[in-house]
Amino acid sequence: MATHLVTGAGSGIGAALAEVLAARGDALWLLVRDAGRAAQLRERFPGAQTLVGDLADPARLSWAFSHQSVPPRLDSLIHVAGVVELGAVGETPVATWQHQLNVNAVAPAELTRLMLPALRTARGRVVFVNSGAGLRVSPEWGSYGASKFAVRAVADALREEERANGVRVTTVYPGRAATPMQEKVHRQEGADYDASQWIDPASVASAILAALDLPRDADLTELTVRPGA
What we know:
7 strands
């Protein structure tokens, strides 16, 4: 039985992935921001264990985990949680930059650091669910794109640093997926939202599973998933 720690399992891609992993009998650890959310996800995913930690405050993750049980062995750590705020560079306040950088880049780096002993034990995999904005940035996407470029750098460095320890690293770059985050983006863009135009979260989950299940004679380091025709 493989053991996975997933962030962002409450909705969208994270929820779709957690559902598949649970259905096939894998052990789940789910990172949540507070005790109330932990109870909700344990009810939704019977048998799953939860870790409470606020990704918006990465400096406190170590302290939070010191008061909880953490997985001793991890076959994968999957970073799905994220936040988005659109706006021109000239109109984006410092707090907005800091919040997105904390949640989207600094917290995944810190969570990975804290979980590396468990990942090394299992020779596991770290998956960063990035974004198309981690490859190319359009107007109004500067602060979000900066956070995603940053997490791309974290993944690229980690891949080389942990190769000798058997830890593999995959970055997935989804295009627009039919998630609550995408609904928010459409509201910020002033556009109508039609979920049928965008990638089903389950399709992105399938791409992540391909990386998780790949035999060790090969490695899937980067994967771009775009909306189909």
